[in-house]
Amino acid sequence: MEDYPIFLGSEIEQPEPAQALFHVLPVPYEKTVSYGGGTALGPNAILQASWQLEEWDGKSKPCDEGIYTCEPVDCSVAPQQVIDNIAKATADIVKSGGMPVVLGGEHTVTYGVIKGLRDAGIEDFGIVQIDAHADLRQAYEGDFLSHASVMKRAVDMGIPLYQLGIRAYCEEEMAFREEFGVLYQDADELVPNRIQSIELPDDFPQKVFFTLDIDGMDPSVFPSTGTPVPGGLDWYQTLNLFESVAKQREIIGFDIMEFAPIEGFHAYDFSASLLTYKLMGIVQRNRH
């Protein structure tokens, strides 16, 4: 892959796809960002920084499950074609027996991933979302494929949604939550009370796709995002909330969205890469 190294390439060789659980899919898509830019550079920065990771994540070696790095999705085409490209790449991963680990890119990317899961035959699954924003607008600036509308597209598809850490939303989004039964624990509850786990209701699907927008975490941890909002989750709270879901349900994939590297501040690139690997580790340990 030209200029896109494989994940953890300093420690592992690129395996055959069939020998890997984790299929890392870079999606450098950036079209509807509404404040700061740079998310198109996120996937490559995360892959580059992954060469500085240790195989041992502190509790296990996630790479023992196999990590295959896919070709980046072509994002040079029209938005709907980009969504279709993401969906095909995701479906191919699932059909091969792999788990998509998607690196964005703006949050619109998740819509393509969700379509891909459906196209691969996974009908009954829910979404758990860490984010600063609800992303439940019908459209934003006239665009139905906006990053601010991605979770609305998911709920429109009939997919149950549980939101964590939200702290920026409009009245339209609040009304939509109530009308369509979107579950949530917002940042003003999670953060001051240092809540480390959630309890999914019994009727929430057994399969879960987890979408993590970097801006869901506090800007003191990740200022490297286009739309930072104070009052977010810290490092350990994020990992613990993810693990609480992994202990209750089968994680069928996850993504890291909206990471926008800041030139000269490699600490954030490394942190995003480590976060990706830590989530792999949580998945690994809760599968067995």
Question: Main beta sheet, described?
Answer: 8 strands, parallel
| Poorly predicted ranges | none
- Tell me the span between the first and last alpha carbons: 32 Å
According to CATH, the fold-level topology is: Arginase, Chain A
Number of strands: 8
The ordered string of helix (H) and strand (E) elements is EHEHEHEHEHEHEHEH
Strand content: 5-15%
Residue share in helices? Answer: 25-40%
Query: Shape, please?
Result: globular
Structural category is alpha/beta
Protein name: Arginase/agmatinase/formimionoglutamate hydrolase, arginase family
Family: Belongs to the arginase family. Agmatinase subfamily.
Keywords: Hydrolase, Manganese, Metal-binding
Organism: Methylophaga aminisulfidivorans MP
Compact overview of the structure:
With 288 residues, the protein is an alpha/beta fold. The chain contains 8 helices and 8 strands; from the N terminus they run βαβαβαβαβαβαβαβα.
Task: Describe the protein in words.
It is a single chain. With 288 residues, the protein is of the alpha/beta class. The protein has one domain: Arginase, Chain A (3-Layer(aba) Sandwich), CATH 3.40.800.10. The protein is built from eight helices and eight strands; from the N terminus they run βαβαβαβαβαβαβαβα. An eight-stranded parallel sheet has the order 2-1-3-8-7-4-5-6, with helices on both faces. Helix 1 (42-49) links the parallel strand 1 and strand 2 (67-69). The longest helix is centred in the C-terminal third of the chain and has 22 residues, at 266-287.
